[in-house]
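Before we proceed, please read the two lines closing this message. Let me know whether the structure tokens fit the sequence:

…
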Amino acid sequence: MSFEMVAQTLEQAHQRIRSARTNHDGDLRTGIDLGTATCVITVVDAAGDPVWIDFDRTGAIRDGVVVDFAAAAAAVRKLKATAEDELGVELANAATAYPPCIGEADSRACRFVLEGAGFDEVILVDEVSAANKTLEVTDGVVIDVGGGSTGVGVFEAGNLAALDDRPGGGHHLDLILAGALGVTVAEAEESKRAGSGDYLAILRPGIERIGASIRDLTRGAEHLELHLAGGALMLPGADTTISKYLGRRVRAYPHALLITPLGIARYAS
């Protein structure tokens, strides 16, 4: 899919944040992104177009592992109830995603959270494949930079040729910024989310660490373009920092934090 088409889709998704689209056709599909910083619900129509998006800040997930089952289920239950009220329908089935290589037991825990929140049937998919459900990269590297880890998938001829992840993501950047500014991690995250490039110099070592993980996980695929998903690297200039560090072409998208949540919903039955 072209950059322009992806950007248009992501803008449409952005417009649906806590603003329901009522003129939808067919059955609705639901995706739950259990992130380190936020839990996101995305509802799409039969065509995969966004209908409703909402989020709740929760610390129940760490690096894709459920560390507080009750809190995670409560957050999902709250988001589910709000979406059902806004859309006037019951949401019975959903999909959720897990970081690559966290292990079968931990990935199943993500499904149990959704079942505990009232979903009947839950589909599991890795976060990188979910991101590419939105981007539709045929030949390239899809990088999902989450709160706790960086997932990397190499796609060749439309097939997932390699998949792995490394620790390090948005939460680690927040820690760097908090230490430099003498503020709390929560305050650092809010400053980073404000979208200012003022902190780029402070965060450069952390961003380059993410770049090093990308380099290590894409050996033999250096000729492929890099596609960034996730909110951790939405800081202005972060994509350029990665590009210069690796000497490779990097594609950044508007509203990149919605790429994976939208893709998760599109995987739902």
Summary: Residues 69-87 form the longest helix (19 residues). The first strand starts at residue 29 and ends at 34. The domain at 131-254 is CATH 3.30.420.40 (Nucleotidyltransferase; domain 5).
